Amino acid sequence: MKQLAWISLLALGFAACGGTGATPRQPIQDDVPRDPKPQEPKKPRKPKNPEPEPKFPDPWPKDAVRHFGPPQGLPGPIIGVGVDDAKNVYVIDGMSAYALPAGEERFVRTATGGQFETGYPVTSIAGGAPEQVYLGFLAPEGKTVFDWTEEEKMMGDVDRMILMPDGTLELDHHYKIQNTNAKWMDETRSILTMKRVVGGDYHGDVYLGSNHGATVLRGDEWADHRHPIFLDENESMVIGYVHGVDYDPQGNFFIGAHWMLAVVPPAPLDDLERWVSIVDLPWLAYTWPEHLGPIEEPKDIRAIAGDMSQSKIFVGMFGLGLSEVVLSPRAWRSIPGTPDTHILGLEWEHGTDTLWVATASRGLWRWDIATETWEQSPFVPANAQVSQVLVDETVEPRAVYAATNHGLYVIRAP
To answer: How many C-beta atoms surround the C-beta of residue 184 within 10 A?
Structure first.
């Protein structure tokens, strides 16, 4: 039964918030402009003692590439990867998490504790502070916010786990994420994607994409309930599952949902919950791939990468390839030569202005943003499914992590 629920959940393309779930026809704008002129967020007051960005030596060999598979404790395909501040590496395969302590050669499996006990899949991951990792889980859906029991509200969401001396993981904190504006309402249940901010004023914030929108974690707290929407003919909100999240060097939060994308300023350092207010923090971008059809035609955005200082966003879609939007003046286009129509992950390597592209069946590619040339990575099998690509620019040479159906690849070569 649980497996069927998981399959059913992954098959869904959207969720309705406060509506009937009717098929959308004409897009009706909400009270937020469709694509406001990009703007920089107000400079927040810093707390007296902001969390410092830690510095750790690079414990890993600088081989051109390293592959981790069954001999290294990864029995099969993996779907996600995360690296904590101390450079411990973590991966997930849907039912288990695996940890590779810094300097070790073999991953250690964990499949118990926390949300693992519910039997629902772990679907997203991000490294945390030293010896910490965030795991996002699926949970049952189908009820209204009035029907969930308190026990059911504990399901899904995020577990923060700690790395033990033997390499296993133990629960440190469970985030019971509910609507910040009405904290009894449990709408955010399944965490489909996540990314932790590394470096800068917002170091350590974790950005989540879920069945119901976007959320920010900070410490043990959270701010929940921002989502790009449009209204159907009955003026009911249509909300896409958020499969893609990212941040730029300024900490802006990029949201890639089923139909649309949006960009939100980072959460104020002195008031996390103010992040949910569209009055205090208006959208920096709010649009959809217009060149591929009207808004009510699903675009199935699975990945997003952008930089508001360059007024540029890339979106990878499941079936429609890779597209780019320049926000000011706004112009959408499909990227020519995209090697696969099914894109699962994007990473903008800012040091080289390279866009790394994870494909569903053509391996790992990089696109030179300046010259607009494609190159397939020779270090990952050419026909691999790459579920996630993660770039760590805090080490020299930088590390590119590719989670694939052949295991984990760590690329240090230029």
So the answer is: 11
